[in-house]
């Protein structure tokens, strides 16, 4: 016990209990990590770990003062008492999930929706509007965030609150005002679970039928899903003024790296309809440029007349700082371990 800083574990264990009651949440929620995991009850794990380590250290110190025979007897006795308790406890696990032999996500390989959308995306960037949180993005294409969980403020803004089904059921869908919003969000396809009775002339049915993935996720049995395409959908890239754009060609597209070529007749503002978030950097013709805005649902940069290659890459400083802090922490721990080992060898 003398060679181990058991007091630190005692302090952490007590701190875990105090934090679990939520008294310090208003203060610590501003710190990295604490703000993400707001639920204070989870910090009792630290308490359990701390007291377990202290108990283990205490037992270790006790056994060191006993003969080998006594150590074997005590260790065996502890094992005989603990093992049945653990085995009995394992019969009544506390869980809120069950393992399934064939999870729904495996149905993506046979999903006609995924295949259709990905084929469409290979020709021109697709953005899907569909109901259900965290579902549309699993098809491998961009989707309007119907988001469940923690996310950027824009994901929960009224600007992204778009109806995914006609209301009422016999109304024209999408309505003219909604079409404007869909075009501003660069939506190209709409997925519904019921057929649209009064489909807008600006849309067409691309396909329908049960889907191997979506029907299992939504528990729809063999019911049909319906995929619609906007006939004259606005592209992912827009310029102001619109008439200045003569050519657009995507060179690469991924979640963290988008590169495209534009040819414009005049000095214009080029908008990429994607979430603007701290960490996104833009380069024009290989040279670092300054983005026109720091937030919102589009990334904008100003370019002069002519042909230009614009590249947006995600390089968050938070990740870089986190990597630096982690490396420094590992270095400090390594130095402390080496110094402690040297001190023990000298003693």
Secondary-structure map:
Layout: H1 6-20, H2 25-28, H3 44-64, H4 68-89, H5 112-123, E1 127-130, E2 142-143, E3 172-173, H6 176-184, E4 189-192, E5 198-199, E6 203-209, H7 214-217, E7 225-230, E8 237-240, E9 245-254, E10 257-264, E11 268-272, E12 280-284, E13 287-289, E14 299-303, E15 306-314, H8 317-346
Parallel strand pairs: 1-2, 1-4, 3-5
Antiparallel strand pairs: 4-7, 6-7, 8-11, 9-10, 10-15, 11-14, 12-13, 12-15
Helix pairs in contact: 1-3
Strand content: 15-25%
List the secondary-structure elements in sequence, H or E.
Answer: HHHHHEEEHEEEHEEEEEEEEEH
Roughly how many Å is the radius of gyration?
Answer: 29 Å
Give the N-terminus to C-terminus distance in angstroms.
Answer: 17 Å
Described by the principal axes of the CA atoms, the overall outline is extended
Question: Can you list the strand order of the major beta sheet?
Answer: 2-1-4-7-6
Walk me through the structure.
- With about 350 residues, this protein is of the alpha+beta class.
- It has three domains: about 5-90, no CATH class; about 105-230, no CATH class; about 235-320, Immunoglobulin-like, CATH 2.60.40.
- Helix content is about 35%, strand content about 20%.
- It has eight helices and 15 strands.
- It has helices at about 5-20, 25-30, 45-65, 70-90, 110-125, 175-185, 215, 315-345; strands spanning about 125-130, 140-145, 170-175, 190, 200, 205-210, 225-230, 235-240, 245-255, 255-265, 270, 280-285, 285-290, 300-305, 305-315.
- The strands form four sheets. The chain has a five-stranded mixed beta sheet with strand order 2-1-4-7-6, with no helix packed on it.
- The longest helix has 30 residues, at about 315-345.
- The protein is extended and about 90 Å long.
- The model has no long low-confidence stretch (mean pLDDT about 85).
């Amino acid at each position: 016990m003398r060679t181990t800083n058991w007091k630190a574990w005692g302090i952490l264990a007590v701190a875990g209990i105090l934090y679990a009651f939520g008294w310090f949440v208003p203060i610590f929620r501003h710190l990295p990590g604490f703000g993400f995991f707001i639920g204070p009850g989870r910090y009792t794990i630290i308490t359990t770990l701390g007291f377990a380590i202290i108990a283990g250290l205490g037992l270790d110190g006790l056994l060191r003062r006993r003969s080998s025979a006594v150590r074997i007897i005590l260790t065996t006795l502890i094992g005989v008492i603990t093992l049945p308790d653990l085995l009995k406890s394992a019969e009544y696990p506390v869980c809120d999930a069950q393992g399934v032999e064939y999870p729904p996500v495996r149905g993506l390989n046979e999903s006609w929706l995924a295949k259709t959308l990905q084929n469409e995306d290979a020709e021109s960037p697709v953005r899907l509007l569909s109901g259900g949180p965290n579902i549309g993005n699993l098809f491998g294409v961009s989707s309007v965030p119907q988001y469940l969980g923690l996310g950027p403020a824009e994901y929960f803004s009224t600007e992204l609150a778009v109806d995914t089904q006609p209301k009422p059921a016999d109304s024209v869908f999408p309505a003219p005002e909604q079409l404007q919003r869909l075009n501003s969000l660069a939506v190209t396809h709409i997925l519904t679970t019921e057929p649209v009775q009064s489909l807008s002339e600006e849309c067409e049915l691309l396909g329908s039928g049960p889907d191997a993935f979506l029907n299992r996720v939504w528990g729809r049995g063999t019911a049909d899903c319906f995929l619609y395409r906007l006939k004259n959908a606005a592209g992912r890239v827009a310029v102001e003024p619109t008439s200045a754009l003569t050519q657009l060609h995507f060179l690469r597209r991924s979640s963290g790296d988008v590169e495209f070529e534009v040819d414009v007749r005049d000095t214009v503002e080029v908008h990429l309809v994607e979430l603007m978030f701290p960490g996104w950097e833009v380069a024009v013709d290989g040279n670092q440029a300054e983005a026109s805005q720091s937030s919102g649902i589009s990334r904008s940069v100003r370019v002069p007349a002519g042909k230009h290659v614009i590249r947006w890459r995600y390089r968050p400083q938070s990740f870089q700082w986190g990597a630096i802090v982690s490396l420094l922490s590992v270095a400090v721990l390594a130095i402390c371990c080496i110094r402690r080992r040297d001190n023990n060898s000298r003693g």
